[in-house]
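Q: Given only this backbone (272 positions), what sequence would you predict?
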């Protein structure tokens, strides 16, 4: 009798891994707070798991995470100061899939926000003033040993949004969660938010939970399992550079896109 198994097309092992895993960072490989990390925000485990939707419970200022009210609890974000770094292992590899929305494969969530010039209604000012912005160097790796430079990203665009139906400083969770795996359009600039109301800005989010969109094609890497975020020591004691990290998300590659990535990888191997 002919086995039915012979008729089943070979499914790449990675597909099974992707289905069984989460889209978040699951392990801290190394952490150095550097010289200027925010005091008290030095627990790197705060960067594991999904981004924060609600904040301030422990501090007595409960509120939804919104573009005006970023996460601020010490168990939600970890700070990286000058000369410091954070290396995380992702539960599943981020794939440079051509099917990914806007080509974005990874999203880094920080804790920057827009200044509410109409507090507490949620009004972005002219010029879209922000707070908590930081710059960090991003490196990616498939094996956790050799890292490839991606470049410098700005923590801040786009501020994290936990709920699509909540007021900016609502003291109880919303009912409609944003989608942390739906990347923002990297072509949107800070200027596009200038002068917008909360509702108008949310329309630009288009269901997304925000975060900094990363296309790993820029690093020339088809699959990334490790992320290293570092802050340069600028040698100036008068500055205190830092970034805060809430979470890193892997954008799920569409099934067709995953096959294309694998075919491309096989093709590249053959051409060598
Ligand atoms: Ca990509
Ligand atoms: Ca400095
Ligand atoms: Ca977190």
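A: Predicted residues:
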């Amino acid at each position: 009798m002919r086995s039915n198994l012979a008729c089943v097309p070979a499914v790449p092992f990675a597909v099974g891994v992707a289905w069984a895993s989460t889209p978040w960072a699951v392990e801290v490989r190394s952490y150095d707070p550097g010289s200027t990390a925010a005091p008290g925000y030095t627990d790197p485990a705060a960067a594991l798991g999904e981004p924060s939707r609600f904040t301030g419970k422990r501090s007595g200022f409960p509120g939804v995470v919104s573009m005006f009210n970023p996460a601020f609890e010490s168990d939600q974000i970890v700070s990286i100061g000058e000369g410091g770094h954070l290396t995380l292992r992702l539960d599943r590899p981020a794939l440079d899939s051509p099917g990914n929305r806007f080509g974005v494969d990874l999203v880094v969530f920080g804790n920057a926000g827009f200044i509410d010039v109409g507090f507490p209604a949620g009004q972005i000012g002219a010029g879209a003033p922000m707070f908590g912005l930081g710059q960090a160097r991003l490196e990616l790796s498939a094996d956790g040993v050799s890292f490839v430079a991606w470049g410098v990203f700005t923590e801040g665009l786009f501020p994290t949004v936990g709920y699509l139906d909540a007021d900016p400083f609502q003291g109880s969770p919303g009912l409609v969660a944003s989608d942390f795996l739906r990347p923002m359009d990297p072509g949107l600039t800070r200027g596009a938010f200038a002068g917008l109301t909360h509702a108008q800005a949310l329309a630009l989010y288009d269901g997304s939970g925000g975060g900094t969109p990363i296309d790993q094609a820029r690093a020339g890497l088809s699959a990334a399992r490790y992320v290293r975020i570092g802050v340069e020591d600028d040698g100036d004691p008068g500055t205190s550079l830092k970034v805060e990290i809430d979470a890193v998300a892997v954008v799920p590659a569409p099934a067709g896109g995953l096959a294309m990535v694998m075919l491309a990888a096989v093709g590249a191997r053959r051409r060598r």
